[in-house]
Amino acid sequence: VEGPSPGRGSRDKRLKYTASGVAFLIGFAILMVLMLPNPWAVAAGAVVGSAAAAGTYGTMYGRELTRERRTAEVSTMQSSLSAQLRALDTTVRNRSHQFPPSTHGQLRMIVVGLEEIVQRWETLDRAPEQQEAVAQTINQHAPRTLDLFIGLPDSAKPAHAAEFKSQISLLAEAVAKTRD
């Protein structure tokens, strides 16, 4: 997620003030035209124009705060998922001798694919169900699958290798679909 650009703050501030000024002028002008023969037209125009300006400024300020919060939220989520992925990568690299050799490439593809997805996390904003699925894969499914296989006694691993390989294949396929 990109941080604020150097000129963005002053540009946003100018935009808020300009839009608020325009809203004031429009509200003031409309009420002046509607109430023109009345001597209170100027006061009423100023009140309505001020309300329009305040509403416009408040709306734009709220949007700015929402954007800042969302950026911070995405950054926090990306950091958390990246840390979990580093732990997963460490497990895959350090314990590769405990996994069936036929799964090594797929395990590495899963980690690399998930890293790519996390790097462009904000693009999944339009698909929150995919964000949730990726987060659960990183935080639960992949680590649990690896830990269960690692926890098996060495004598039982050959009997469960086919099932482990099919689970890893499913994870790799899901990661590849989400990444693309």
Output mean pLDDT.
87
The Rg value, from CA coordinates, equals 28 Å
Report the biggest beta sheet as strand number plus sense, adding barrel if it closes: none
Distance between the termini: 19 Å
Class from secondary-structure proportions: mainly alpha
In percent, how much strand structure appears in the residues? under 5%
Unreliable stretches, pLDDT < 50, 5 or more residues? none
Helical content class = over 70%
Would you report the number of β strands? 0
How many alpha or pi helices?
Answer: 5
Strand-and-helix sequence, N→C? Answer: HHHHH
Shape descriptor: rod-shaped
Can you give a write-up of this model?
The protein has helices at 8-35, 41-94, 104-119, 128-151, 157-179. It is mainly alpha-helical. It is built from five helices and no strands. It is rod-shaped and about 95 Å long. The model has no long low-confidence stretch (mean pLDDT 87). 19% of the residues are buried. The longest helix has 54 residues, at 41-94. The two termini are 19 Å apart. Helix 3 runs parallel beside helix 5. Helix content is 81%, strand content 0%.
